[in-house]
Known about the structure:
By secondary structure, the protein is α+β, with helices and mostly antiparallel strands. The chain folds into three domains: 46 residues, no CATH class; 57 residues, Beta-lactamase Inhibitory Protein, Chain:B, domain 1, CATH 3.30.1450; 63 residues, no CATH class. It is 28% helix and 31% strand. It has five helices and eight strands, in the order H-H-H-H-E-E-E-E-H-E-E-E-E. A four-stranded antiparallel sheet has the order 1-2-3-4. Strands 5-6-7-8 form a four-stranded antiparallel sheet. Strand 5 and strand 6 form a beta hairpin. Helix 1 packs antiparallel against helix 2 and helix 1 packs across helix 3. It is globular, with a radius of gyration of 18 Å.
Amino acid sequence: MPSAKPPGRPAGPFTPLxxxxxxxxxxxxxxxDLVAEARRELGVSxxxxxxxNKRWQxxxxxxxxxxxxxxxxxxxxxxxxVISRKIGDLECEALRWPVLLWPDLRFEVMVAPNGTVWNExxxxxxxxxxxxxxxxxxxxxxxxxxxxxxxxxxxxxxLEGTAPTRFGLTFTAPDADGVRRECVAEFTxxxxxxxxxxx
Length: 199
């Protein structure tokens, strides 16, 4: 006799909570303990997280996927803010939404004039205090965003991520003794996950 399906959250519209579970699912590869703590805070199971990620992947792979910016609006609602930004010759808009798990962060989607989304990640909220990053000891998981690490340890060089939601930076940073070390920092959805040190 087949076992009963374990209870979970009923399937329905994809919600902001589901989207946060997608963020966590990608981070679980690096920081399972932090993710487990976050799941408990949200009151969801590991099954819920996996199911949300499965549904997200299905949305991305559908034969006629919705435009990314439209998809985010349908899931997260209207952005908290829309900021015009010029990067080189490109005029674009930064759409930002609050994230329950990280009150000091915002999920930012960069949209080009033709509606193409070319970046999706977590950034610091404008009114939030940025972390003080001075040494390797300050670079703990989930402590900072890509932009914050790049500014604190300039010049930092971007690295291609191992997956679409991942990003890397290489830079030098002082250790506890003040010795500068070569580092490679790995980010998922723009949030620091781990730092590898060499030299």
